[in-house]
Design brief:
By secondary structure, the chain is of the alpha/beta class. Helices cover 39% and strands 22% of the residues.
């Protein structure tokens, strides 16, 4: 039998790799390991239990919670029955959850714990098809007596009974599956409206997993950390697709709060993270160094400056003088090696980043200390892989060459990037119009991203095609590029830039409370809240230095020199997905930002030095409130005006 579905791949791995580790979970501080044989047994039992509870071929089943072995098993168990799993972002509010459940016509749901069950129950008011909820963690569930609620233990008990009465049922159901069947619905992040349900087949996912495993020489001895949202296509391909194809072990951290500790304990050999994770890691490194002694700080700065000069060249096996090479070797012993060990990246052979553009400075930092970080470019609609950087051709400003089996082209008029491959999605669920707009009849997919292919055959992404604009001075305005450069600085958590059709560029910035709070503590700057800290004049001055450094960098780019940031404001609150300002994958929802902060944007361009801002905020318990503050607007010197009076005098 051809292993053309995930349940069939699981059967193969149970036969050929039975005792090898398939998945681990850190529970109550202890790593628990499950072999391929264990996983196969769990999946079969859960599949029998779901069948006994009424799940049928073609039904949709939601999966919601943090990365847990039993949630991954539930996905594959549903697939074994021919049902379609619909993973949902675990931090989604009930309203977001309702939309996906209703749109996908979900009839079953498997939830991690009480928190997720509460949201599902609330969502049932509009998601009429949802009839059965299974919960995995029984804590807090004692008083819940609804007849549609069942514990995972109940499902497994029913599964044992169902298996006893239907001995060959599971094998027969798995055999009915085929590569062309729908494997999963994955909903897009919804930056411009409601999310779209991307329908992916087993052929889509397995072909891309097989291609990447062969291309990158990924094998069964790898260890990865399964910590990204299960609703994101990257987790589906890396933690299930590649794991099942190559037979390696995925490791689930105890919680998001313990992520860095768990990363260090596992020491993965193969690690993927979006840029925001690498930004957070770098921020934690900088905060830790600021708390260290003066000698340690000087040593760190000295060797990191040397790494920036020669580290990337050494990694790429370019010519470096013996003295510089010796100094780098010494830095590896004293700084780079201990730093990688502290981060849990000592064993890593491959480090990938994607999801959005990564700042060149951030990218070069990791490569300079000897980590083979590479960029890839992809989409949910591509089953992740469109381009990938070859080992000997890694550049900070490209996302690599077309992967094997992927055709790539750029529209000469619009600059939009298009691709075609075996990974191309089947359709958007219940949305023929958007499917036709995105995928041509001959299989080419419109990415919505503007870019070009350079002389080396590498793809360069400029920005989202619809977001790229032109300033009144004729300079190109690429907001995401500017924002990524700003977010390299540890004090800046999020940034949103403006400038298309304007005389100059401006920025709204959310500070990083951990980094800025640490700095305030060391400098005896008292504050009682995020809003109070963000309003401090000293904090404004620090952010202004960061912006002026970005402006100096932009001055050397002929296309973007005119897009330097002239004015900025620090927001009184963090940009938050719960407030609709970011997607669940932390992409800026520009249309929503423009509407919510229209008075601030107006003030950035009318010369005011202060503006009153009021926005609705969602609290952790779901209640709504209003967050208000008077925001100061400050000028930043553009390159060539450093040391002179600002372009506009802020009040």
């Amino acid at each position: 039998m051809t292993a053309d579905t995930f349940p069939k791949l699981l059967d193969r791995n149970a036969r050929e790799r039975g005792p090898r580790p398939a998945i681990r979970e850190k529970y109550l501080g202890i790593w628990q390991t499950f072999s391929w044989r264990d996983s196969r047994a769990e999946v079969e039992t859960i599949a029998h239990g779901l069948a006994a509870s009424g799940l049928k071929r073609g039904d949709r089943i939601a999966i919601i919670g943090d990365n847990r072995p039993y949630l991954y098993w539930a996905i594959v168990a549903a697939q074994a029955l021919g049902a379609v799993p619909v993973p949902v972002y675990q931090d989604s509010g009930a309203d977001e959850l309702s939309y996906v459940l209703d749109h996908a016509e979900v009839s079953f749901a498997v939830a991690e714990d009480q928190e997720q069950v509460d949201k599902l129950i609330e969502a049932m008011e509009t998601a009429q098809a949802l009839k059965t909820i299974v919960y995995c963690d029984p804590r807090g569930m004692r008083e819940y007596d609804q007849d549609f609620l069942h514990s995972l233990d109940e499902i497994k008990e029913a599964g044992e009974a169902h298996r006893a009465a239907n001995a060959s049922f599971y094998e027969a159901e798995v055999a009915r599956g085929a590569g062309g069947d729908t494997a999963i619905f994955l909903y897009t992040s919804g930056t411009t409206g409601n999310p779209k349900g991307v329908v992916l087949t087993y052929d889509n996912l397995i072909s891309m997993a097989e291609m990447s495993v062969e291309l990158e020489q990924i094998h069964e001895d790898e260890d990865t950390l399964a910590y990204l949202p299960m609703a994101w296509v990257g987790d589906c391909v890396f933690s299930i697709g590649q794991s099942y194809v190559a037979g390696f072990c995925a490791n689930c951290p105890e919680s998001q709060a313990t992520f860095l500790t768990d990363l260090k304990e596992i020491g993965p050999t193969y690690f993927f993270a979006p840029p925001r994770i690498f930004e957070n890691i770098l921020t934690s490194v900088n905060v830790r160094m600021q708390d260290s002694g003066k000698t340690k700080q000087r040593l760190f700065r000295y060797f990191m400056n040397h790494a920036r000069r020669v580290g990337v060249k050494i990694l790429q096996k370019e010519s470096v003088g013996p003295a510089a090479r010796f100094k780098y070797w010494l830095g590896e012993i004293l700084v780079y090696g201990p730093l990688k060990n502290t981060l849990g990246l000592s064993r890593v052979r491959r480090v990938y980043t994607a999801g959005e553009a990564i700042g060149p400075d951030l990218f070069d930092f990791y490569r300079s200390i000897g980590l083979n970080m590479k960029q890839l470019y992809g989409q949910t609609e591509a089953s992740v892989f469109v381009t990938l950087q070859p080992d000997n051709e890694v550049y900070a400003d490209t996302v690599g060459k077309a992967c094997p089996g992927v055709e790539l082209k750029v529209d000469p008029d619009s600059r939009e990037v298009l691709y075609r491959s075996e990974g191309v999605f089947k359709e958007y669920y219940k949305n023929e119009e958007e499917t036709r707009k995105t995928k041509t009849e001959d299989g080419w997919v419109h990415t919505g991203d503007a870019g070009f292919i350079d002389n080396n055959g590498h793809l360069k992404i400029i920005d989202r095609a619809k977001d790229v604009g032109v300033l009144n001075n004729g300079s190109m305005f690429a907001p995401k590029y500017l924002e990524n450069k700003l977010k390299f600085f540890p004090f800046i958590q999020e940034a949103v830039t403006f400038g298309a059709g304007r005389d100059y560029s401006t920025a709204m910035i959310s500070i990083d409370i951990d980094a800025v709070g640490n700095w305030a503590e060391r400098n005896n700057v008292a504050y009682a809240s995020y809003r109070e800290l963000a309003a401090k004049p000293d904090v404004y001055q620090e952010i202004r230095k960061n912006i002026e450094q970005v402006n100096e960098d932009l001055a050397s780019d002929p296309e973007l020199a005119g897009a330097q940031i002239a004015r900025f404001a620090l927001l009184h609150k963090e940009l938050d997905a719960d407030d609709g300002e970011l997607t669940r994958t932390r992409k800026v929802r520009r249309r929503h930002i423009n509407e919510r902060y229209d008075t601030v944007i107006e003030a950035l361009y009318d010369g005011r030095g202060e503006v009153h801002c009021e926005v609705e905020t969602t609290f952790e318990d779901g209640r709504k409130g209003v967050s208000a503050a008077d925001l100061r607007i400050m000028d930043a010197a553009t390159a060539g005006t450093a040391g002179a009076e600002p372009l506009r005098q802020a009040g």
